[in-house]
Specification:
This protein is 44% helix and 14% strand. The chain is an alpha/beta fold. The longest helix is centred in the middle third of the chain and has 19 residues, at 289-307.
Length: 615
């Protein structure tokens, strides 16, 4: 390995020159960058800019932060080892953003971003929002690309336009950050048709309606004698309580923190923790009627709980019933609907869970024969959840098939190491998945039979050349889509002249829709984001558009008017697909230019009927 060390005080030109030179030469380099206390790395492979990391930042925010530094030292290593890809910006976009920074003449006093963020979070959880916002703004004035500050800034705001702006900035620079992805996915549906000013949940920062229960995490926002929601997102509440405990240590006379901690423990039914905290809240703020009433209710609930402790969930002896039970842990309603239809046809009983907390609760109260586990869940990932499930009574040897859109061999190894029996990549072949499940069920129900051969090394990969249900291999599909040409199913020729443009970010939903439409002879074009749809639309001539309302970078309501500006799209029928059922949402879809508004999970026959009605 050869190493070149280069120092410069003109980093904008220096780093970008190295990147441009590497692109021309097809070089593979690691650029190690240091400026004061800041260190980072930019990785280039075969001339392609792949990844950047510095401090808490990865991806777009990291590379733009690094190229914006001054007085730097750069060490350049020639490398052959593979590097992950976490940068989505092109070099031209990076040049655009850095040139715009160069035009800003005002210099800010340097701040320690990570220290300021830590201080801002402490103030945030002490309910000192104004001071927290000032610190976050100081970070962002120095470094617009420091996306954790945008994330927490979005949680402080109460005006919808400001929230959207902050989320957009966080998503643009934090493109590889899981917390940013989750926040965007959670908040965007909430930002439709909201009042100008809103209130936030103290546990997950979702927007609140007029009720006393958070619509997202399901936490009760008051101490009540009414039953709590059965689907409370315990993981999210527990994560927030960690921050509140730190805040109380620094500000022990803050009654509001004590009350919030007590309320969180109440939602987790941990009355022994909730009571002393509520007593502290009353002591610190004796004039508060809310705190006094809450303490009285907690005392009553704690006494009732002592007299009548909750019995352990009754469990039927495993396999006493002849019906097979499959638990699906999947946050996508459409995926759950499709899988339910698939296995109910086999006579299986289906238990559904949309997050890790719900899966833990239902696994303890039902006799499970097999688990289908999605890797990416709203509150935890499958690798972390599976060992917890294995610790439950009777779950140690239950077969678990992990479903994921990630095909990296490292992810597959992690899945197996965490206790998965199989690792199936999405989009999966329904026939092969049912056969796989049936084999494991057969082994589970008849343990005296010889062990089945392991299928771990022959998982159902998306690019596997075996013919899926539509009659077309994934490889063929991918090649066709790269060329922007329709995918044609030989199953039917009666619709061979009709093509449908599917704009949907869920890989599983696209697979299901493609399978349904492909079997009926339609051509398929696919786009996963609004930007991709706008880039592909001028090059295709569809006959109908299927448009998801919630996309990673925009909404269907916003993208449809832009598509309708194209002459060949203007008069096409558009069917919107969404999980939102409110009449106001339907009206928004119609006003944006859609002809139909189907809610998820949709009925395949109804979808076909609607499409045929227009075509």
């Amino acid at each position: 390995m050869s190493k070149i060390v280069h120092s410069s005080t003109d980093l904008n030109n220096t780093i970008l020159d190295h990147i441009q030179s590497a692109r021309r030469k097809g070089s593979s380099l690691d650029l190690h960058i240091k400026s004061g206390n800041r260190q980072g790395i930019v990785q280039i492979r075969s001339g392609q800019l792949l990844s950047a990391t510095t401090g808490k930042l990865n991806g777009n925010g990291a590379v733009l932060t690094l190229v914006s530094l001054e007085n730097t030292t750069i060490a350049i290593d020639e490398q052959s080892a593979p590097a992950p890809k976490n940068i989505s910006l092109s070099l031209e976009q990076i040049l655009h953003y850095t040139s715009s920074l160069q035009t800003q003449s005002e210099k800010q006093i340097p701040v320690d971003e990570e220290k300021y963020l830590e201080d801002a979070l402490l103030l945030f959880f002490q309910f000192k929002n104004k001071q927290a916002a000032e610190l976050l703004l100081r970070i962002l004035r120095q470094n617009r690309f420091y996306y954790p500050a945008w994330l927490w800034q979005s949680r402080l705001l109460t005006r919808d336009d400001y929230i959207i702006k902050a989320l957009d900035e966080a998503y643009r620079w934090g493109n590889d950050d899981r917390d940013i992805w989750r926040e965007s996915r959670k908040m965007r549906p909430q930002l439709e048709d909201i009042p100008e000013s809103v209130k936030r949940c103290v546990f997950c920062w979702s927007l609140l309606d007029e009720g006393t229960t958070c619509g997202h995490c399901k936490a009760s926002l008051i101490v009540t004698g009414q039953p709590l929601a059965s689907d409370i997102k315990q993981e999210e509440i527990q994560q927030s309580l960690v921050y509140y405990h730190r805040a109380l240590e620094k500000d022990p006379e803050n009654a509001r923190i004590a009350y919030t901690l007590s309320l969180g423990s109440f939602n987790l039914k941990q009355y022994e923790k909730a009571l002393p905290l509520m007593r502290d809240a009353v002591r610190l703020s004796p004039q508060s009627t809310l705190y006094r009433k809450s303490l009285s209710l907690l005392l009553t609930l704690a006494k009732a709980n002592d007299r009548n402790p909750e019995p352990e969930a009754r469990k039927e002896p495993r396999h006493q019933s002849s019906q097979v039970t499959v638990m699906m842990v999947e946050d996508s309603k459409t995926s759950r609907k499709v899988l339910s239809m698939l296995f109910e046809r086999l006579g299986y009983r289906i238990v559904e869970a949309e997050n890790g907390a719900e899966a833990m609760a239902k696994a303890q109260s039902a006799s499970i024969d097999l688990i289908l586990l999605d890797l990416m869940l709203p509150d935890i990932n499958g690798h972390e959840l599976l060992p917890k499930l294995r610790q439950l009574k009777g779950m140690k040897n239950i077969p678990v098939i992990m479903l994921t859109g990630r095909q990296d061999s490292t992810d597959r190894l992690l899945g197996i190491q965490s206790g998965a029996s199989e690792y199936v990549t999405k989009p999966f072949d329904p026939k092969k998945l049912t056969e796989l499940v049936q084999q494991y069920i057969k082994k589970t129900r008849d343990p005296n039979k010889a062990p089945l051969p392991s299928l771990t090394t022959n998982t159902l990969k998306a690019d596997q050349p075996t013919a899926p249900a539509t009659g077309i291999s994934k490889q063929q599909t991918g090649e066709s889509q790269k060329r922007g040409t329709p995918v044609i199913s030989p199953a039917s020729v009666k619709n061979s002249q009709k093509s449908i443009f599917v704009i949907e970010d869920s890989q599983t939903s696209r697979k299901v829709i493609s399978m349904i439409l492909g079997r009926n002879g339609y051509h398929i074009h696919e786009a996963t984001t609004g930007q991709e749809a706008l880039e592909l639309a001028p090059n295709i001539q569809p006959d109908l558009i299927l448009l998801d309302v919630m996309l990673p970078d925009t909404t269907g309501y916003n993208i449809l008017p832009q598509l309708k500006e194209m002459p060949h799209i203007k008069d096409l029928p558009v069917v919107m697909l969404t999980g939102k059922t409110a009449p106001s949402d339907r009206m928004k879809g119609m006003l944006a230019g859609s002809n139909e508004y189907l809610t998820k999970p949709f009925n395949p026959q109804k979808l076909l009927s609607v499409i045929r009605g227009y075509l």
